[in-house]
Structures are given as C-alpha cells and as structure tokens.
Amino acid sequence: MPAVSVEISKVRKTFGPTVALADVSLRAYAGEVHAIIGGNGSGKSTLAKVISGVLIPDSGQVSILGKAATTPHEARELGISNVFQEVLVADECSVLDNLYLGADGLLGSTVNKEERRANARALMAELLGFELDPDTLTGDLPLSIKQWITIARAMLTRPKVLILDESSAALDFESTERLFRKMREMKREGTAILIVTHRIAELVRIADRATVLRDGRTVGTLEEGGITEARILSL
Ligand code: ADP
Ligand code: MG
C-alpha cells in the first residue's frame, strides 16, 4: 500500500452563514492523481485551501504526510504547493521573479540566481513547448502563459503534494497534454497530485481516483478503473 499523503477527516468550514464544507473526508496517496469533482459552489476550492493551510477548518482533521499544518507557511514547509483557481501573478514583474515569488527563505539560500534562471527557463520550455525569455514582463503575456507561470511556480518547489485548482481552464488541448506528461513524471517521483476540474473527459484520462463533493459533503470516492463519465454523473 502506498503512503498516505493527505488525510482529511470530517472537515467543516463555514463563512458566516454559508456552509462551504459540511462534512468532507478524503485520502490521497503518494504517487497518485486524485481528482476532486463537484458542481459549482460544492466546496472544491475551499477544500483545496484547507489542504494547503490557507483556510483553517472549523472542525475536523487535516493531516499532510502525517503532520498537521496550521499556516500556509507550515504547509509549504511540509511540501504542499497549491495552484489557486485565481491566476495570481504580478504583472509588473518579470516571468523569473513571478516564478520565484514567495520562494525566498524556502529556496533562497540554497539555489543561486543563475541556477534559478536555468531551472525556470527549462521548466517553462517543457511546459510551454517553446522557449520564453525569463526576463519578459509578465503583464505583456496572454492569460494562458500566466496560468503556466502559476503552475511552474508550484512545480519548482518540488512539492510532495501538488494541488491544481482548475489549472487547465485556460489551456488548449496540446498544452493540457504537456501538463499531463509532467504530472505523470511527478507521480513517478511519488508526488500526490490533487486536481480540481469540471472537465469530466479530462479527469477520466488522468485521474487514478476521484472524490466527489456535493453541497460541501463527500458523496463518494471512485477507485482506479471505476472513473467513468456515467458514474461521475450519477453521483
Ligand atoms: P467550488 O470551488 O466548488 O465552486 P467554493 O469552495 O469556491 O466552491 O465555494 C463553496 C461555497 O462557499 C460557495 O457557496 C461560495 O460562495 C462560498 N465561499 C467560498 N469562499 C468564500 C469566502 N471567502 N467568503 C464567503 N463565502 C465563500
Ligand atoms: Mg472553485
């Protein structure tokens, strides 16, 4: 049995009168792609933020690699990286600076500037399918490339748990293929990858298992081989 990377148990999270998560449990293993599926407003992004320590649940347990994180910083130290649904880039900064935004203290002392530049250039070329000058001003780039920057930023931290919240939304078919190839490579290295997506055809292709949410509750987990469009829709 592979190691458990993420264990969520009976989590509840409210925003004032809104119950975003009523009762959610989920287990993700090292080396799997685990999808989180559900309709609009079912709590997927809230769950992603609870896992990455951005939101603290009202009750329930969140365990990452056997430990509890109570701040985003602690979560990052444990090896979690979350690519948020909102594309968060600083338009006035270069691609390179955006890729290492918030990384100081985490990688700052061990990775020097030239190494950063080389890593950034190589990863962006792999993901984009063409060379991009890391000194390019981010504000001049189309949304799809900005989205790639947020994905690459998360991957550069070499996370043990990577969360992608609708991260392929602005990507075309070819780009999504390159993302999937990279995800499979990370899986082989033991990373647990959680993807939030509403594109059923896409997750049937990439996910090993899937947890289905409805109105902030877990309504089922689909196991390997059992992820079909019909079963997702029936849940
Ligand atoms: P999903 O990602 O599945 O579309 P969300 O997790 O974004 O769903 O939202 C779940 C519910 O919680 C929705 O009703 C949403 O309006 C509400 N919600 C999410 N974030 C906040 C917030 N920061 N403040 C108030 N309500 C929120
Ligand atoms: Mg969402």
What would you say this structure looks like, in words?
There is one protein chain. This protein is 34% helix and 26% strand. The chain is built from eight helices and nine strands. The strands form two sheets. It has a six-stranded mixed β-sheet, with helices on both faces. It is globular. It starts with a strand and ends with a helix. Bound molecules: adenosine-5'-diphosphate and magnesium ion (MG). Adenosine-5'-diphosphate is lined by residues 15, 18, 20, 38, 40-46. The site of magnesium ion (MG) has 3 residues, from α1.
Topology (elements, then pairings):
Elements: E1 4-15, E2 18-29, E3 33-38, H1 44-51, E4 59-64, H2 72-78, E5 80-83, H3 95-99, H4 113-128, H5 143-156, E6 161-165, H6 173-188, E7 192-196, H7 200-206, E8 209-214, E9 217-222, H8 229-234
Parallel strand pairs: 3-7, 3-8, 5-6, 6-7
Antiparallel strand pairs: 1-2, 1-4, 8-9
Helix pairs in contact: 4-5
Bound molecules: adenosine-5'-diphosphate and magnesium ion (MG).
Magnesium ion is lined by residues 44-45, 85.
Number of helices: 8
**Strand percentage:** 25-35%
Number of strands: 9
How would a crystallographer describe the biggest sheet? 6 strands, mixed
